[in-house]
Design brief:
globular, 31% helix, 8-stranded mixed β-sheet, binds flavin-adenine dinucleotide, D-Amino Acid Oxidase, Chain A, domain 2, 379 residues, FAD/NAD(P)-binding domain, 23% strand, alpha+beta
Amino acid sequence: MAGEARAGDEFDVAVVGGGLVGIATAWGLSREGCRVVVLDEGDRAVRASRGNFALVWVQSKGLGLAPYAGWTIRSSNAWQGFSDLLKQETGLDVSFQRPGGFHLCLSEKELEARANVLKRLHAQPGIVDYKTEILTRDQVKVMLPDIGPEVVGGSFCELDGHVNSLRLFRTLHTALNARGVTYLPSHRVESITKEGGEFRLTTTQGEVRAAKVALAAGNANMRLAPMVGLDCPMKPERGQIVVTERLRPFLNHPVVTLRQTDEGTVMIGDSKEESVDPSGLTIGVSATEAERAVRQFPLLANVNVVRTWSAIRVMTRDGFPIYDESKTHPGAFTVCCHSGVTLAANHALTIAPMIARGALDAPLVAPFSARRFHVQAAG
Ligand SMILES: Cc1cc2nc3c(=O)[nH]c(=O)nc-3n(C[C@H](O)[C@H](O)[C@H](O)COP(=O)(O)OP(=O)(O)OC[C@H]3O[C@@H](n4cnc5c(N)ncnc54)[C@H](O)[C@@H]3O)c2cc1C
């Protein structure tokens, strides 16, 4: 029931931000019986959810914050169930697949560096035990027959997968609509106060009231969080993606920089630039991505590029998620991360029930509180 709420309407939870983090959380909240409103910007807003690479990715997650590995695996394991629930509700299939994924190496030096990264990751105290193997060229070729002569090997993790993230975006909005969640686009939140036990959110189209508020506004959380006694330090970065024409199926496993979509196109991406200009495109970056893709899969050499775009990653200062609840404004929560496709199952099925109950489950999410930045600052 998009745009039906009148100013002053009251809700159990106001979710600020209609990207994948916000709508997965809102869907989860509606399953908990909450009366939910999603406040969002308009069609032209900067949204990582429309420009991502759509991996549901586990390998190498958690280097520097071991609990992040367990949290990511939890979501990867919950993803099929999440996808099934959405299909039951909407009839839409988001094409989730988890065939295992690769990180390919084009030199022995790269392969050695990859092995060292994984060794350091799995040597961290408290890291959950999961398998990521270093495979030789011959072992890779069994699963990826079209690799080029330069591929010397790579790492493989059976917990890696991918999805059609634009269809996920549409499916979640369809499910919210069917559940009677109020979605208010073009209601940019300008300020949030707490008065008389309720939150008052002043938007560009009037005030909305709610007993709780979940901040899921991506990089904009940095401005909104302090309004409710929270902190959300962000360091956005730009990524660029190249998309080819449709091809015969040849890639049965996603690679961290290259995947074949359920529609047959090939997406190529993995660049990082310190820029927040979503309309900019650095041709040299796309060229480097394409060149590396052709060295990995020479059959791509004469394939047409049909689209390329850039998008801004929702990146916290240390790259790890922030899940937090306010001490000064009880009932206010932050839900913020890069990898919002991968973690969508957690947001819907784990974080949302916590917010509905009114408290985050400390043992599970305390490592992701923004208070970690204060410790670092004090240290
Ligand atoms: C190039 C690239 C590749 C990626 N690849 C992957 C991948 O392979 N796998 C993966 O898991 N993740 C990937 N990601 C990350 C993923 O796209 C995001 O984590 C995910 O889309 C969730 O984003 P979000 O909802 O937090 O933010 P966004 O999609 O940016 O949504 C934030 C929303 O908040 C709204 N908003 C902002 N300010 C306000 C306000 N004041 N009031 C109301 N609304 C507001 C915005 O309009 C927007 O709708 C990638 C991202 C990029 C950029």
